[in-house]
Each structure stands twice: as structure tokens, then as C-alpha cells.
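Write out the 3D structure for:
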Amino acid sequence: SGRGQLKPRPWVTSSFLARSSSMVNVDGTIVRVGGQIDGFRLTRVAEHKAVFMKDGVRIELTTDGEKAVDK
């Protein structure tokens, strides 16, 4: 529905790697490392991948639409 929320199947459309300013585009919303989307904090950006954490749950999103969840 609104911007700044993780959809049931969020999609990372691009990742931008920079030492202190890495960011990802999640369904049209740009999120920098340390930023949040739907309460999930972006903790890491790699080529074609973003890692989010919330309440001990780790979610890894990729540009090919895969999503991995670790508790």
C-alpha cells in the first residue's frame, strides 16, 4: 500500500555500493544502510542483494526476486 513498507514479496530492483553510503531500491523506495522500511533496518548491501533485520529476524532480498528469511 504505502511507500516505506516491505510488501509480501518485496523486490530489490537495484543496489548501489559505496563505502559509507550504500543503498538499495526496494519496490521504488531508496533505502540507505541503517535506514528502515516497515520496521526492517537495512544492515548490509552487496551486489544484487540487501540484508534487513527486525526483532532478530534476518531477511535477504535479491534482484532476482528471491527472499531468504532466518530467525
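The CA atoms of residues 12 and 54 lie 18 Å apart.
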